[in-house]
Amino acid sequence: MSALFTERQIRAVAIFLPLAALLLLALWFARPAADPEAARAAERAMEQQADSVVMAPFDPNTVDYDGLRALGLTQYEAVSLLKYRAAGKVFRIPEDLTLCYGIDDSLFRRLRPYVRIGRRYAIAPHEYRTERVVREPLPPAPFRIDTVSARYLRAIGALSKRQAEAFVRWRDRSGIRDMEELRACYVVSDSVARALEPYVIFPEREAPASDLPVELNAADSATLRSVIGIGPKTVGAILRYRERLGGFRCVEQLAEVPGVTESNYEKILRQIRCDSSGISKIDVNFAGPNELARHPYMAPCTLRKLLKRRQLKGGWSTAEEMIEDDILTPQEAARLAPYLTFGRHGGTDE
Are 102 and 81 in contact (CB under 8 A)? Predict the structure, then answer.
């Protein structure tokens, strides 16, 4: 059997190993020594603002590094914005600056008055633009939302071409009859809605089949939706509040519903009525804590006093007794009394 290595191979290995060891030692000694002070100096330089700050209008989509430094941004802040932009991000409105990880709230508040988004990038509202959208800009004027064209929405600077076309498709398919429905369109941001609101004219809703006012406690969601001033979100809020109450005692309680604005409230009142004969009541002497707590007029502190006193006393016969026992204030009693019954042991009510 022949040897594993020849004499020549053994000599070559014997020469190579010392040379490799010498090379590793040379690389080790040639490595630069760590310099903590230099690292700290570089970090301070990244955080240092420019010597002279000149606040001037700028477009975050086109401003260069020197321009950002002149605005008072540190090296870190300027570089982070440029990296954000290099990743393909676009600033459509000034608030988009807050999405950049290097721009905190205090810096954004300082920069906000000077942000100008160019026509190429801006979507709306019109005042954010620095260039004219069309050669002959259209002056602000009221327009009907049910007939406005995509071209007009582009011309006034409200939406881009693709957004305007998507908006018209949405409108023609779903219909838009109030600001709530306008905001529901996925291409309309809050800022665009605010800019358009003074000029939008909504179509009149078709009158209900009956000329009689809508009965608030019996109406379903479709019937409530036919009332001018009640949008799809408000319908849900009314139904949820009606269920918690046990029914509306008077039409004025509608003002307590979240989402019912002052202007809509005045419109709604002229179209509704309220029959309180069928409202659900709670037996204050026997109802469980969860049932009592669910009622919107039962404050947590009132509930605690009621349960503690009921355990000792056994119950009450009238709301006036609850006032005398310091369970309810006169104002709370006036609101709650229509929704309370006072059952007695033995099964009779008073």
Answer: yes
Contact 246, 295 (CB under 8 A): yes
Cβ neighbours for 217, distance < 8 A, ≥ 6 positions apart: 242, 247, 248, 274, 275, 276, 278, 279
Q: What is the largest CA-CA distance in the chain?
A: 118
Residue showing tokens 């009907």: 144
Q: What is the pLDDT of residues 264-287, one digit of tens each?
A: 788 888 899 999 888 999 999 999
Q: Which residue has the tokens 């002497």?
A: 285
**Residue 114 to residues 20, 54, 57, 173, 211: CA-CA distances in angstroms?**
62, 11, 4, 40, 55
Residue 307 amino acid letter: L
% of the chain residues with pLDDT over 70: 83
Q: What is the CA radius of gyration of the chain?
A: 36
User: CA-to-CA distance for 332 and 130, rounded, in angstroms?
Assistant: 56
Q: Report the distance separating Cα 117 and Cα 115, nearest Å.
A: 7
Closest CA to 179 of 157, 195, 159: 195
Helices (H), the chain: 7-30, 36-47, 65-70, 75-86, 105-111, 150-155, 161-174, 179-184, 190-196, 221-225, 232-245, 262-269, 289-294, 300-313, 319-324, 330-336
**What pairs with residue 343 in β-bridges?**
349
Taking each helix axis from N to C end, the angle separating 75-86 and 36-47, rounded to the nearest 10 degrees, works out to 70
Nearest to 118 by CA among 158, 59, 71, 57: 59
DSSP 8-state symbol, 45: H
Q: Strand pairing partners for 345? A: none
- 3-class SS of residue 220: coil
CA distance 264 to 262: 6
Q: pLDDT tens across 118-143, in order?
A: 877 776 444 444 444 434 446 668 88
